[in-house]
Structure formats: structure tokens, C-alpha cells
Specification:
By secondary structure, the chain is an all-alpha fold. The protein folds into 2 domains: about 20-170, Tetracycline Repressor, domain 2; about 175-273. About 75% of the residues lie in helices and about 0% in strands. The longest helix is centred in the N-terminal third of the chain and has 25 residues, at about 50-75. It is an enzyme of class 2 (transferase). Converts heme B (protoheme IX) to heme O by substitution of the vinyl group on carbon 2 of heme B porphyrin ring with a hydroxyethyl farnesyl side group. Its EC number is 2.5.1.141. InterPro entries: Protohaem_IX_farnesylTrfase, UbiA_prenyltransferase, UbiA_sf.
């Protein structure tokens, strides 16, 4: 307490620290991207007026499952995270949070999210949310230690959120939902490969079997990134071809896709950080 003023720092600091730590456990930025793509799938799957109450329940349930999956991932990789510079300061490897409480949080939020979707939305949405969780936590996460194909496998749960949104809005699936899945799947690959290249020493130190481990000059990694970026071009135009979106989508998707491919080509031309 200062003379004539009230210093609120002692009261608010513990709360802000608590929020910051658990926000990191939930990977808030990643969860936000998951919600954005879920919303896109819901909006397109609604085919007309959007049920805002149903959308609200879809967002809450999906956010809980995504947060739980991220917490599971950090619990399982806490020892590996401690070996990497970019993750050593996370709440678990740094010792700021206890592993048991993170595990409990992961279980509670994941189950709550799937139940929320199952009871407040529909069974197909809950099923695909559960599939996303299982693939991310129990397949992709351990596979990072055994095979460089983990990147491909990890792109599958990363591409399922728009499918969850579509199922939530429509009560089922159609070919259009899988177009959205394909777009997000292909978009992730250059992104993942770029991260693997940027942090290749970190991944090697932690024992993760990334493609860059056997590709020290980046030749294979950069070519694969470019190939996926090129493959994304025609696939990203499917929504316009099948009249899922308005005409402005086509030139926008084409311009952004070409820009993405150009940047991937830059990776081939100059394999630097």
C-alpha cells in the first residue's frame, strides 16, 4: 500500500500468473485456430441461417476438447519439452505446475467437452471430437519419437475441426465437409515442415523423429513443403466449384494459394532460417 493510493498488484498478480500458466497449458493460440476452423465448418454446414445457440454449444464443447488435448500433450511430453529451448519454460518442464494437476485438468476438460457436444449438440460432432483427441494424444504424440511420418498423422486431427463444425450444424457429413478437411490438411504440411526445419536441433535433442533429422541440408523438406503447397491450390478451390461459397472466394483462394506456393518455393531456393 502506497501513501494516498491503493496498490492492487499483490491481489491481482497471483490471478494473472495462474491465468497465464493455464492458458499456456491449453495452448490458447492453437485452440483459437481450432475454433476458427470449427466455426467455418459450422457456417458452411448450416446452409443458410445459423443457429447461434447451437453454434455457442459447439464452440464451448470444441474448446474444452482442444484444451484437454493440449494439456494431455504437454503432460506426455514434459520430459522432452525440458530438453528443447523453445519449450523448456513451459509450466510443466519448468516446474511451475504439477504434472498430476495437469493430467486431472486434461481428463476433466476432455470428458466435459465430449459430453457437452454429445448432449448439447449431436452425436456426430462428439464422435469426431473424440476421434481428434485420440489421434492427437494417443497416436501422433507417441509417434513423434518413432517415425517422421508423425507429421502426416498429426495433420489429420489438425484438419478435423471443420468436420466437427459441419457435423454440428448439419447433423451429419457430406463430401463438402471432406473438402474442408483436405484444404486444412494440405495447408498444415508446409507449416509443420517449416517449423521442423527452424527447430531441427531442438527436435533432435529431444529425440523427435522429424523429417529434418535425416535431411541436414533441407533439400527433401523444402521440396515436400512446396509439393504440398502446390497440391493445396486446386483443392482450395473446391468450395467455389461446388457453390459452397460466394464468387469472391475463388480469386481470394487462388491469390493466397499462389502466395503460399511462392513462399514454399523460396524455401527451396534458399534453405535458411
Amino acid at each position: 500500500m502506497k501513501t494516498g493510493t491503493f496498490d492492487a498488484t499483490p491481489f491481482f498478480s497471483p490471478l494473472s500468473v495462474w491465468v497465464r500458466e493455464w492458458t499456456e497449458v491449453c495452448k490458447a493460440r492453437l485452440t483459437l485456430l481450432v475454433l476458427m476452423t470449427t466455426w467455418a465448418g459450422f457456417y458452411l454446414g448450416a446452409r443458410g441461417s445459423v443457429d447461434l445457440v447451437l453454434l455457442f454449444h459447439t464452440m464451448i464443447g470444441t474448446a474444452l476438447v482442444a484444451a484437454g488435448a493440449s494439456a494431455f500433450n504437454q503432460f506426455l511430453e514434459r520430459d522432452s519439452d525440458a530438453l528443447m529451448k523453445r519449450t523448456a519454460d513451459r509450466p510443466l518442464p519448468s516446474g511451475r505446475l504439477n504434472a498430476d494437476e495437469v493430467m486431472l485438468f486434461a481428463c476433466v476438460t476432455s470428458i466435459a467437452g465430449m459430453c457437452w457436444l454429445g448432449f448439447a449438440v449431436n452425436l456426430p460432432a462428439a464422435t469426431f471430437a473424440a476421434l481428434t483427441l485420440v489421434l492427437y494424444v494417443f497416436v501422433y504424440t507417441p509417434m513423434k519419437k518413432t517415425s517422421s511420418l508423425n507429421t502426416l498423422v498429426g495433420a489429420v486431427p489438425g484438419a478435423l475441426p471443420p468436420v466437427i463444425g459441419w457435423a454440428a450444424a448439419s447433423g451429419g457429413l457430406s463430401a463438402e465437409a471432406w473438402y474442408l478437411f483436405a484444404i486444412l490438411f494440405l495447408w498444415q504440411m508446409p507449416h509443420f515442415l517449416a517449423i521442423a526445419w527452424l527447430y531441427r536441433e531442438d527436435y533432435a535433442r529431444a529425440g523427435f523423429r522429424m523429417l529434418t533429422l535425416d535431411d541436414p541440408d533441407g533439400r527433401i523438406t523444402s521440396r515436400q513443403a512446396f509439393a504440398y503447397a502446390v497440391a493445396l491450390l486446386p483443392v482450395s478451390l473446391f468450395p467455389a466449384m461446388y457453390l459452397m461459397v460466394r464468387s469472391l472466394f475463388f480469386p481470394g483462394a487462388l491469390a493466397l494459394g499462389l502466395g503460399y506456393a511462392w513462399l514454399a518455393w523460396g524455401f527451396i531456393a534458399a534453405r535458411t532460417r
